[in-house]
Design a protein that fits this description.
Length: 830
């Protein structure tokens, strides 16, 4: 065409996007074409990885038409959407989900079989993108899945880490971290667009100048710049023809900029900035809930939000867009404090680059952000030192100061010169060093602030941010977390899914409250037998996986008692260990005959932050207890401890459906929500848990009689701490507890070495920040009740079925509806 653009009216371009033929033959042709022409190998010479890559690319084709169509309609309608800003997305494997979304699982399996390939082998070849630490990152993945399934416009923004969460190995029972080279064998699900890179700058200084209208303005003169290259991922809705986008940014050096420094002769500076650039998206920080305040981490945060905002304003919005209407077009959801630097960044763009007046820009900004808080641990609320922030982002620091000044002025207008209150509420903390409280900044800027479970939101309002709650009535709200039933029920538990569909028909996967219709089946003996058979089959499947993966077996006929989550003291894996040791002691002391123990296999899965010494010591202890228990013949095989290394989404999908008992034993008031707890309940495990996070809501829904509650309530925890908690007093007054701790301290689990676990024992007896010893007696009592209940398999199964039937509330689709109603106001678009 004359204008040099693409010829959109070419006859073939009118309908360029159509899916490949959907038939077994059609699939085989597509697959072989990918293998031959895409991968460059003949079927006879292909490796499993060749086949996997060709399959992934073939399946991708089936989603492509929907993806392009979704983008076209979004561009056309300009419907209001969500930009989810998250430093983490713990996606899990993509292939199974893409096949489910397109409903092609059977066709593909048949076609591959005709080629002599077992689809299971290709599934197993996929390395999951582990671009998150734990709950927060997995939640983001569930949310984007639900939004696509509900046809809500959403673009997920994040970082394409070259190395995701480390691969955990054990050497002599201790955690050793290996790099997660998830990209090494190819990345068939991503679409890089280096031509659409954004520039992101750092450092330098600011200066004022007078613009052509004679107005006094500020500009930022940065010292170095990197390129942010977008990598797009498809986020397919479940069989609804919609595919949303996840856009992850990779940092690369900017040639142009480097040249400038090279030419100025400062070679070292040029090399430094090059290394900086490549480093920014190199590796995910493996800290869960305990940020370290590292400079590179702030660089990562600013890098991805600056690229995302620029991308949205420059590439997603139409050119002539009226920026005062921005809040009607987009909501930037801040997933914890990690992306909060986006607030001053949007202000900078609107004021410095677009020339808007400060007040106008601030109104827009306040309308465009909302903030989700995921924690209550004070050490997990991010702060950045003024020194670092000012050095890396001088203009942003100025903007934050001005936001704070105006905010505190409002506080003064309301409350007078209440200096204590002003100091409490200031976005800038003065001690121990001058720093920016990112949660406060997010609260001041956000249209809404939400916690992630009822209890958490209440504590957030009343304990963490009470001044803000008073100052901003109506700003605080709750949205209880959820999980996607597509991945965590349908894909992870096909047996249960089939049983459900047979019983209540189709449709429940996108309307999970319909699981209620299963309730009557709990009374049906035949249904219970089938439900148990599904569980048994899931245990056999797990056995097969663990045998192949780690050479360990899951004993037949055992209750499967599972605690999988990040290793953190507040989650209290040590309490679980003390229970195992207690059972062990009861047998070796002769109090209980081994034959009278309920046979149990305990499964742990947990990564510890590499710098978190106590967490790593606890991992060592679990492994040591495991090898002692597993090898003591006096137990007659009635107890077994398994700790498969490198717990991740892929393993979760095998472990959770096999579980009988779900361990959710955090100290009340510390676990914001938990999402594993929901996955277990939905897969028919019973929970033993404290009154914490979403456990509270799970128990309310499934019923007290179908949940093993124990331990102090949050106000009791507070009272005990206020009164002065003395852990050793529990040790002294409870003989069984004393015997358990003494067993560790006397070397029972360390081949006689009395000092191997000094740190754990010393910590428990002297500090025990999370009150494990105070809840020990109640926990053991509750576990004894679990054993008694498990003896009646009919009753147990009835309770398990009711757990499934009554947990539909925990679909992330429901979470998304709550966000839409309470915060986003973004209706489904098509
Ligand atoms: C987690 C919390 O610890 C969980 O209770 C919660 O269910 C999830 O977030 C999702 O809301 N969390 C996390 O994984 N990482 C953080 N930095 C803070 C909270």
């Amino acid at each position: 065409p004359a204008d040099g653009g693409p010829n959109r009216s070419h006859p073939l371009a009118l309908a360029p996007v159509s899916s490949p033929p959907v038939s077994v033959d059609g699939f085989v042709r597509e697959f072989l074409r990918e293998l031959n022409f895409g991968q460059g190998v003949a079927l006879s010479a292909s490796t499993v990885n060749d086949q996997y890559l060709a399959l992934a690319r073939t399946v991708r084709h089936y989603l492509m038409a929907r993806w392009l169509e979704t983008m076209r309609r979004q561009k056309e309608t300009q419907a209001k959407g969500v930009a989810y800003l998250s430093a983490e997305y713990l996606l899990g494997r993509q292939l199974g989900n893409a096949l489910l979304a397109t409903d092609l699982t059977d066709i593909v399996a048949d076609g591959l079989a005709q080629c002599g390939i077992d689809i299971a082998d290709l599934r197993a070849q996929e390395v999951e993108p582990g671009l998150g630490n734990g709950g927060l990152g997995r939640l983001a993945a569930c949310f984007v899945d639900s939004l696509a399934t509900m046809s809500v416009p959403c673009i997920g923004y994040g970082i394409r880490y070259e190395f995701g969460i480390f691969r955990q190995t054990f050497v002599d029972g201790r955690q050793v971290e290996q790099p997660d080279s998830w990209l090494a064998l190819g990345a068939p699900w991503e679409f890089p667009h280096p031509d659409s890179a954004q520039e992101v700058s750092f450092g330098g200084h600011t200066e004022t100048y007078t613009d052509s209208d004679g107005a006094e303005r500020t500009r930022w003169v940065p010292a170095w710049t990197v390129q942010a290259v977008p990598y797009n991922y498809m986020v397919p809705g479940y069989q609804n023809g919609r595919v949303n986008t996840l856009r992850l940014w990779r940092s690369v050096a900017t040639e142009r900029f480097d040249l400038r420094i090279f030419n100025s002769g400062d070679y070292e500076e040029a090399v430094r900035s090059q290394t900086f650039a490549e480093n920014i998206s190199k590796v995910l920080y493996p800290e869960d809930s305990t940020p370290q305040g590292k400079e590179l981490r702030l660089q990562q945060q600013y890098f991805f939000v600056a690229a995302s905002i620029a991308d949205f304003l420059e590439d997603v919005l139409p050119e002539d867009f009226d920026l005062t209407k921005l809040p009607e077009r987009i909501i930037f959801q801040l997933n914890d404090t990690h992306p909060v630097i986006a607030v001053p960044e949007l202000m900078r763009v609107l004021v410095d680059e677009k020339g808007l007046a400060w007040d106008t820009a601030w109104e827009i900004t306040k309308g465009c952000f909302a903030y989700t808080c995921h924690t209550l641990l004070p050490e997990a609320l991010e702060v950045w030192s003024v020194e670092l922030l000012g050095r890396l982002l001088p203009r942003h620091l100025e903007i934050i100061y001005r936001i704070n000044e105006e905010f505190l002025e409002e506080v003064r207008e309301r409350f007078g010169d209440d200096e204590l209150r002003i100091r409490r509420m200031s976005i800038i903390a003065e001690h121990p060093e001058r720093s920016v409280r990112m949660a406060y900044l997010a609260t001041v800027a956000g249209s809404k602030v939400n916690g992630v479970a009822e209890l958490h939101s209440q504590l957030l309002r009343d304990k963490v941010l009470p001044d803000f709650n008073e100052f901003y009535p109506g700003k605080f709200t709750n949205v209880t977390n959820g999980i996607t039933p597509r991945r965590f029920v349908r894909l992870a538990n096909p047996g249960l899914s089939e049983l459900i569909t047979e019983s209540i028909g189709v449709g429940w996967l996108t309307d999970l409250e319909r699981l209620r219709e299963l309730e009557p089946f709990a009374a049906d003996e035949e249904f219970r037998a089938r439900f148990r058979e599904v569980k048994a089959a899931n245990k056999r499947r797990l056995h097969a996986v663990l045998t192949e993966r780690d050479g360990v077996s899951v004993s037949d006929g055992h209750m499967l008692d599972v605690m999988v989550k990040r290793l953190h003291e507040y989650k209290r894996q040590t309490l679980k260990v003390l229970h195992i040791i207690t059972q062990y002691n009861r047998v070796v002391s002769g109090e209980v005959a081994a034959a009278d123990l309920t046979p149990r296999t305990f499964i742990f899965g947990a990564k510890a932050a590499p710098g978190y010494k106590m967490a790593k010591d606890i991992i060592h202890l679990i492994n040591a207890v495991g090898s002692t228990v597993n090898n003591d013949e006096r137990l007659e095989g009635r107890l077994k401890v398994i700790f498969p290394p490198n717990y991740n989404v892929t393993l979760a999908e095998k472990v959770i459906p096999a579980a009988d008992l779900s361990e959710q034993i955090s100290l009340a008031g510390k676990e914001a929500s938990g999402t594993g707890n929901m996955k277990f309940a939905l897969n028919g495990a019973l929970t033993i848990g404290t009154d914490d996070g979403a456990n509270v809501e799970i128990r309310q829904l499934v019923g007290d009689e179908n949940f093993f509650l124990f331990g102090m309530l949050e106000p009791e925890v507070e009272a005990l701490q206020a009164a002065g908690y003395v852990p050793s007093s529990y040790y002294e007054s409870n003989p069984e507890l004393r015997r358990a701790i003494d067993a560790i301290a006397s070397g029972v689990f360390s081949g006689g070495d009395r000092h191997m676990f000094d740190s754990v024992v010393g910590n428990l007896l002297q500090e025990d920040r999370f009150l494990a010893l105070a809840d020990y007696a109640a926990y053991i009592e509750a576990q004894d009740k679990v054993d008694a209940a498990y003896a009646d398999q009919e009753e147990w199964t009835r309770a398990a079925i009711l757990n499934v039937a009554r947990s539909g509330f925990f679909s992330s689709d429901r979470s998304m509806r709550d966000y839409i109603d309470r915060i986003w106001h973004t209706p489904p678009a098509f």
